[in-house]
Design brief:
Keywords: 4Fe-4S, Iron, Iron-sulfur, Metal-binding, S-adenosyl-L-methionine. The protein is an alpha/beta fold and about 240 residues long. The chain is built from seven helices and eight strands; from the N terminus they run E-E-H-E-H-E-H-E-H-H-E-H-E-H-E.
Length: about 240
């Protein structure tokens, strides 16, 4: 039984879509992609930039219309990235990936690693994954409000690496969540596990974010720390949002 026909899967038409971006140059490094946002996430990170996508009921079943729009973009896009929310929360994801591949697009995924078993099933349908590593595994519950979430992310990383699918790890940072010691340890932990491409994404302030998520100072993280972290990886970058 393959990922597209798993008993845990649903038809593509049942996907709960929270929105989409027709063209993006930043959601899949080096590729021009459309981004499809799926509703639903089991974690409750206080800094979430898409809180309207936390509940699956907030998505709409509008894949047929979106499929038509993607078909008109064949030849203009390199691929399609499924983001969220947590896209693995949607049982229709395997069918969506299969349909997108059938259109001739490469397939990408943004995931926090909340569902290692579901990730394993869709890896054969993926060309690239952006895996969100929030912090060191023991510290995850302080961010996600869910016990065991760090172990799930760690398992997802191991499955992704074993698959041979291209990937990068990224961490969303804010001084209220990460101090210099944590960031140093996190980089070393990822490097020890063989991660070669890593990015820091600085948390963008917004009206939906409560205190203590104030704007980040221009000199944070310190340039010396950035240089130390960069030395662990083949490719490292800091993204301001």
């Amino acid at each position: 039984m393959n990922a597209a026909t798993s008993t845990n899967s649903a038809p593509a038409e049942r996907a709960r879509i929270g929105g989409w971006q027709p063209f993006s140059t930043c959601d899949w490094p080096g590729r021009l992609a459309a981004v499809v946002f799926l509703a639903g996430c089991p974690w409750r990170c206080g800094y979430c930039h898409n809180p309207e996508l936390l509940q699956r009921r907030h998505g709409q079943q509008r894949w047929p219309q979106l499929r038509e729009q993607l078909q008109r973009r064949r030849g203009l896009l390199d691929g399609v990235v499924f983001s969220g929310g947590e896209p693995l929360a949607d049982p229709a994801l395997p069918a969506l990936l299969a349909e997108v591949r059938a259109m001739g697009f490469a397939t990408g995924l943004h995931s926090g690693g909340a569902y290692p078993d579901r990730l394993q099933r869709v890896l054969p349908l993926l060309d690239w994954v952006g895996l969100d590593i929030k912090t060191l595994p023991p510290q995850y519950p302080a961010i996600t409000a869910v016990a065991g979430s760090g172990e799930r992310a760690e398992t997802s990383l191991a499955l992704l690496q074993a698959s041979g699918v291209d990937y990068e790890c990224r961490s969303t940072l804010h001084p209220a969540l990460h101090d210099e010691h944590t960031l140093t340890q996190l980089a070393a932990w990822l490097a020890q596990r063989g991660v070669r491409r890593y990015a820091w994404q600085l948390l963008r302030p917004g009206p939906q974010l409560p205190q203590p998520f104030a704007a980040i100072a221009a000199n944070w993280p310190a340039p010396a720390l950035q240089a130390t972290v960069a030395s662990h990886f083949t490719h490292f970058e800091v993204r301001s949002g």
